[in-house]
Amino acid sequence: MLLGLLPGIDVVGSAADGEDAVRLVAQLAPDVVLMDLRMPRCDGVEATRRIRAEHSGTQVVVLTTYADDDSLFPALQAGARGYLTKDADGDEIVRAIDDVLSGDAGLSPKIQRRLLERFTEPVRTLPQPPDAPPDGLTAREVEVLRLVAEGQSNPEIARTLHVSTATVKTHINNLFAKAGLRDRAQAIHYAYRHGLAQPPGQPIT
């Protein structure tokens, strides 16, 4: 009833839900759809996505009760060019329709403020996980490699780690195979090159 009274607007159809909206757009080819979000069968976000994908000449302005982020951003990502809440008056609706028809965004002042707030919120950076050892080495194999780089023999490594010499040999054979190493000299160079051990005389960082 409100839309029918607004100047310059011709209401060509009314849909009961999202499925009906997609069907009517294909049939009537309107310039603009005023789209609700919470509807049975097909919600407004999915209906908007389908309309914009199949009928690029039809613009979508969301007119809904909901202004929360979970409603706003999916609707805009689906292709809505305008977003109004249902407390918008006739002038706001006409302005939003004119804006989207001219290629602009038809957003209410409240929605513009929310977008500005969202994009000026401090970026939360997550702590970076520590780098994984190279070549799939396990933490224990890296530990053994460090002790090799310190010049410890197999029995000395066994005593340091409180394991048997046979276990140390197994770790060394495994890390040699994974890293493609032939001998302890190559292993020491490998440990230095990958930052797993510090050459003598260099500070530990």
UniProtKB/TrEMBL annotation:
The keyword Membrane does not apply. The keyword Heme does not apply. This is Response regulator transcription factor. Residues 130-195 form the HTH luxR-type domain. The modification 4-aspartylphosphate is found at residue 36. SMART domains: HTH_LUXR, REC. It comes from the Bacteria. It comes from Streptomyces decoyicus.
